[in-house]
Amino acid sequence: MKLIVSDRESVAQGLRVRSSYVLISIRDPGVQPVRMPRPTALRAVLHLIFNDAEPVTGFNLPAGVRLMIPAQARRILRFVDEHRDHVGAVVVQCHQGMSRSPAVAAAIARYMQLDDQKFWQEYSPNQYVYTLMLNEFKESKKPPST
Questions:
Q1: Is 144 contained in some domain?
Q2: Which in 33, 40, 45, 120 has the greatest CB count within 10 A?
Q3: Residue 145 lies in a domain
Q4: Is there a contact between 65 and 54 (Cβ–Cβ < 8 Å)?
């Protein structure tokens, strides 16, 4: 399965994927879902809302900043497991496609026993999101199929 990282604008303009795919769409609180053409290859969309932020010891995040929570990581896991045998790609999209979405894609890659290095070489994944996802994936009782 292919993992694709994208930004909001590219998805809104009609991302071209050469196989059937699902989309994990991440946006900030208060921002409307990305408007996009509905291509026939798109099978399902998972919408998530959290800021591109990481907790820092000794620093209080500003009011209104929402961190990713474990329940969202579990939703991603269920979504991927539900669709993995029926699509050729998972597209993960956030505002700029540089931090949250590559963190999610890298964690999915690790979960599926794929190489996650390209996400670390080409992007700046949010370490908190990545670690939270890996921790939740470890808690999963269902091992991934290869």
A1: no
A2: 45
A3: no
A4: no
For the chain, state the CA radius of gyration: 15
For residue 47, the cross-strand partners are 25
**CA angle, 5 as apex, 144 and 22 as ends, to 5°?**
55
Q: pTM of this prediction?
A: 0.92
Provide the number of structural domains found in the chain.
1
CA distance 20 to 98: 23
Per residue in 14-68, pLDDT tens? 888 989 999 999 999 999 988 887 777 999 999 999 999 999 888 888 888 999 9
Q: Helices 100-111 and 70-83 sit at what angle, rounded to 10 degrees? A: 60
Residues 6+ apart with CB under 8 A from 33: 25, 27, 47
Q: 105 in a domain, yes or no?
A: yes
Is the residue at 146 inside a domain?
no
